[in-house]
Amino acid sequence: MPPINEIIVFIAVLAGAGAIAGFLAGLFGIGGGAILVPVLYEAFRWFDTPDSVRTHLAIGTSLAVIVPTSLSSFRAHYKRKAPDMDLLKSWLLPVPLGVAAASVIAAGTSGEILRSIFALLAAAMGLKLIFSKDATSVGDRLPRNPAKAMVGFVIGLLSALMGVGGGILNNTFMTMFGRPVHQAIATSSGVGVLISLPGVIGFIWAGWGAEGLPAFSTGYVNWLAVALTIPMTMLAAPQGARIAHGLDRKQLSLALGVFMIIVASRFTWSLFAG
Fold first, then answer.
1. How far is CA 32 from CA 37, 75, 138, in A?
2. Count of Cβ atoms closer than 10 Å to residue 8 Cβ
3. Which of 95, 184, 224, 237 has the fewest Cβ atoms within 10 Å of its own Cβ atom?
4. In whole angstroms, what is the distance from residue 191 CA to residue 26 CA?
5. Where does the pLDDT of residue 116 fall: very low under 50, low under 70, confident under 90, or very high at 90 and above?
6. 190-213 burial, b if ≥16 CB within 10 A, otherwise e?
7. Which secondary structure element, helix H or strand E, spans residue 222, and what is its range?
């Protein structure tokens, strides 16, 4: 058991991360996993969690936190009738199927590979946020099936492998096809629900019986970290959603992009540092 001062820091860090993640969930339509995964990865180090399961545990726990965060954010956006419900209904199967595929991959993948995937995708997302002013338009309407279903599957797959809610990927997809950015953000909160709910089940299954998991873990989900983080995300998500409808987010997008690059660099460094 870590010293009491380290436990206090652990609680404070997770509470702060939860507030930031919840605010970003509402503001950008993301689940906050980009914030939570690296914080959880470092936090579990204090509890002597083996490197072989630490990345998996950070991703699975992040997905568990995203469940209420996404629900709260989606509820706030839905009250404004902002999400594209037709798109969400069409993705009720493809997105969870992508998440299920990610769970199978995670079950047989090392922590190093998962960190590599996270670092690569985080760097790509960060560069996109920093250098892309607007998404390049490729059409004025969303593609039809099977292309639309395939996009949903890929968003579910990549997002679950990162422990994120899919907001950045879905925002890019929708705005590329002429959808207003505020509608894309609102819809992304619903995509987060489609990713996080099956993601929790999948990562519990993937980590069932794994060795070295800290106390209060079920598979690759640590419920102590979930309990410490969720209250702050629930409080902050509606505030982010409210501000999203009237705020110029360019500077915040830049800040999030820089953060993603830093996280990608940190995870890349950990691959070589051991």
1. 9, 16, 28
2. 11
3. 224
4. 13
5. confident
6. bbbbbbbbbbbbbbbbbbeebeeb
7. strand 221-222
> Which residue range is the domain that position 83 belongs to?
4-273
Least Cα distance to 188 among 169, 161, 160 occurs for 169
Residue 169, both tokens: 């990927």
Contact 220, 194 (CB under 8 A): no
Mean pLDDT of 158-173: 85
Mean pLDDT of the chain: 83
- 137 backbone φψ class: left, alpha, beta (φ>0; ψ -120 to 50): beta
Total structural domains within the chain: 1
Task: Output the six-digit token pair for 250.
Answer: 């360019």
CA distances from 119 to 24, 103, 149, 260, 266 (A): 20, 18, 26, 9, 8
DSSP state of 249: -
pLDDT digits (tens, 9 = 90+) for 29-42: 566 677 788 878 87
